[in-house]
């Protein structure tokens, strides 16, 4: 099509996925009820997908899959001296199997897994006939100590700080991380204010917060801000000792903010957002500006010592 512009994005590499690298944007939704987590995360996922510069929005919540549930009859199990672990282990071996031995072929070991045939694993009647060895020396059918049923359930349940969590991840394109993170925080606040079938957008006992690279960037900013303040304080103390004056170092320190004018202009022209690299550059630039100020003040003091007036000394420097 004439005049059309086509853009493409490379998929994440296998190496990056293997190391589990976090996405630039990651939102953590915590709570105890899986249905409520699914409802909150689905609305949040749809809202985040509308933010410009975001693509590849994914949720860690996997759709429920078919499963066989075993409801243990504790009273009957205790009669045969069987624990819940004994029963669960027997069912797990029957359905998932266990590695009985290994077969070596051309220097490669291959696991040999023993379990029920597929048609038997799908048949509840066959599963109920599984025999469990009791510590009393008896072989007890599974149907005597547990009730089996078919249903659906989560494939995995992620937990963070002892709470169930759903992670919503997204990548960014042609926008700064800080700008996108600010809009994502706005989207989170919108979701919190919405009314749903569970009450307020985020009911009591649930939490939604931004994580991933944006969280690490915010933590880095805090560390860099502290480093910047500490650096200015140490530089002032050193200059005060060098010039044997308390006000001359102030003159040098006050030249540092003036350098930020050029930094702001450069960021605006290049459409670059404030990030960790920029902050490191500002700290380095501050050191250069301070060094230049030290040379100028030292030269002014030299001219003053020769009897030159302060106005002429400043102009001469």
Automatic annotation (TrEMBL):
Keywords: Membrane, Transmembrane, Transmembrane helix. GO terms for molecular function: xenobiotic transmembrane transporter activity. It holds the Pfam family ACR_tran. The keyword Membrane applies. InterPro entries: AcrB_DN_DC_subdom, Acrflvin-R. Gene3D superfamilies: Multidrug efflux transporter AcrB TolC docking domain, DN and DC subdomains (3.30.2090.10), Multidrug efflux transporter AcrB transmembrane domain (1.20.1640.10). This is Acriflavin resistance protein. It comes from marine sediment metagenome.
């Amino acid at each position: 099509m004439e005049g059309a512009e086509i853009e493409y994005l490379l998929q994440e590499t296998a190496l990056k996925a293997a190391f589990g690298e976090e996405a630039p944007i990651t939102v953590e939704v915590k709570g105890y009820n899986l249905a409520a987590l699914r409802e909150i995360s689905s609305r949040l996922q749809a809202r985040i997908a509308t933010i410009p510069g975001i693509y590849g929005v994914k949720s860690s919540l996997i759709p429920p899959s078919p499963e066989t549930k075993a409801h243990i009859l504790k009273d009957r199990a205790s009669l045969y001296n069987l624990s819940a672990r004994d029963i669960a282990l027997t069912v797990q071996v029957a359905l998932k199997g266990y590695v009985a031995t290994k077969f070596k072929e051309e220097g490669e070991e291959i696991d040999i897994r023993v379990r029920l045939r597929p048609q038997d694993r799908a048949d509840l009647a066959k599963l109920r006939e599984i025999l469990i060895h009791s510590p009393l020396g008896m072989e007890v059918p599974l149907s005597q100590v547990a009730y089996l049923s078919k249903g659906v359930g989560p494939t995995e349940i992620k937990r963070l700080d002892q709470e169930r969590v759903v992670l919503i991840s997204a990548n960014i394109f042609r926008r700064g991380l800080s700008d996108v993170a600010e809009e994502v925080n706005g989207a989170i606040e919108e979701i919190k204010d919405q009314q749903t079938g569970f009450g307020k957008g985020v009911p009591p006992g649930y939490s939604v917060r931004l994580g991933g690279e944006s969280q690490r960037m915010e933590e880095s900013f805090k560390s860099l801000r502290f480093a910047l303040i500490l650096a200015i304080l140490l530089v002032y103390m050193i200059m005060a000792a060098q010039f044997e004056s308390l006000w001359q170092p102030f003159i040098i320190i006050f030249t540092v903010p003036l350098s930020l004018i050029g930094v702001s202009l450069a960021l605006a022209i290049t459409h670059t957002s404030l990030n960790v690299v920029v902050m490191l550059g500002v700290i380095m630039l501050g050191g250069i500006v301070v060094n230049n100020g030290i040379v100028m003040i030292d030269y002014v003091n030299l001219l003053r010592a020769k009897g030159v007036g302060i106005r002429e000394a400043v102009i001469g420097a």
